[in-house]
Fold this sequence. Notes:
Shape: globular
Mean pLDDT: 75
Strand content: 15-25%
Distance between the termini: 24 Å
Structural class: alpha+beta
Radius of gyration: 22 Å
CATH architecture of the domain at 193-456: Orthogonal Bundle
Number of strands: 20
CATH topology of the domain at 193-456: Transferase(Phosphotransferase), domain 1
Low-confidence stretches: 1-16, 27-78, 269-312, 472-489, 491-497
Amino acid sequence: MASKEGSLTNSSQSMSINTLADQVSSSLSFADPSSDSKTGNNNNKISEQGESGKSSTCRPSTSSDISDESTCSSFSSSINKPHKANDVRWEAIQAVRTKHGGLGLNHFRLLKRLGCGDIGTVHLAELNGTRCYFAMKVMDKTALASRKKLLRAQTEREILQCLDHPFLPTLYSHFETEKFSCLVMEFCPGGDLHTLRQRQPGKRFTEQAAKFYVAEVLLAMEYLHMLGIIYRDLKPENVLVREDGHVMLSDFDLSLRCTVSLSIVRSTNGSEGLSKSSVSCSQQPSCIQQPSCISMAPTSCFGPRFFSSKSKKDKKPKTDNGNHQVTPLPELVAEPTSARSMSFVGTHEYLAPEIIKGEGHGSAVDWWTFGIFLYELLFGKTPFKGSGNRATLFNVVGQPLRFPESPVVSFAARDLIRSLLVKEPQHRLAYKRGATEIKQHPFFEGVNWALVRCASPPEIPKPVDLEPVYPATPAVPAAASTSVRSDQSNYLEFDFF
């Protein structure tokens, strides 16, 4: 994400389209990946054409499961989002559409640049006359075409149109101009978890805070996999903090869409399936309706209802009439285990071994990155980072997992990380049953997964300044300054589309 200076209206305060074009092009220009340290907010991607402002890796999949075309039936009916039924921003967008017959760039005032990614810049935008604020991702279509990124931009848009989940972004609108493709999304004033972690004592989260954040991320990943979407870009920079302190995954331009099989398993060990049905991502499972507890006073996220301190040893198995142990309820398992991709995408420090070795990968790469993500939140660094990118990749493939002596974390936390950071994907936790296996790990003992949204976050963001940064005249510098991660070469991307 990026930050820009200017605003677009029909008034004298408007920023010209040409100026916006200059700034978007500047944000997409190739950066100098000279450092490996992880200190900023942006990352660098390396492609066959050169290096740009973010870093990931890509060879296209050879699997027949993968579709390069839109298959989600909800793509054309983005109005069907039950979780946004009472969203004033959604209502404001619909009101403008009804009044003007559509929505365009002239209906927004761009206030400041929030961030810059590989395929576009993100601006804080106000819907004219509403005091409703959005994050608008602006992509230069000519730049995308010249860098062969049009397919990735399309994939991200189509995925966003599918989503309706408390911990995933809302796409309020998408429109095109002659020069730009624009996505109007939810604005998260709390920044990202990377920045928030830097502000913590020791630049790391407490175990309870980390548990809160990874629990919400896990639910988001479970939902994505249920839709047949492999995320492939989990890292603190891509986890944004909403104004209420809950989190939201962002950036889906590296995601992979595939088919997924839904299974009902009889027991918690998942050894016996009752039924199976192949479901494509044209089906859009929706998570449960927003519970009434959202309107209640905040609840401690580590209270007995959510994160019980009661251990498994203290619990007695449920019995029927005191004689027989009750059979656990059947569980829904939705994991795209059959997906295979030969793409080389991701961040160096987060790349799974099977990606580095070019063996092809599936949904298990998301659970590897989930383990790296938890490790970084707890210890303030990633486990395999080397002196340079080549050393990092070597460590991921060839070095064992090690934990620092400080800080001290629970055995359950370390055991979960060990189970996720298994180099052979077929032996990795969640390889077969996805998030279901992780949710049953002792680290999450006592979590009431249906009510995670009701828990009180570890930290509530301070109110942000919504005043425009862009000057009142169109004379905006073409290269607006922005905070850029110094590990700009920490992303790899090789595109063979």
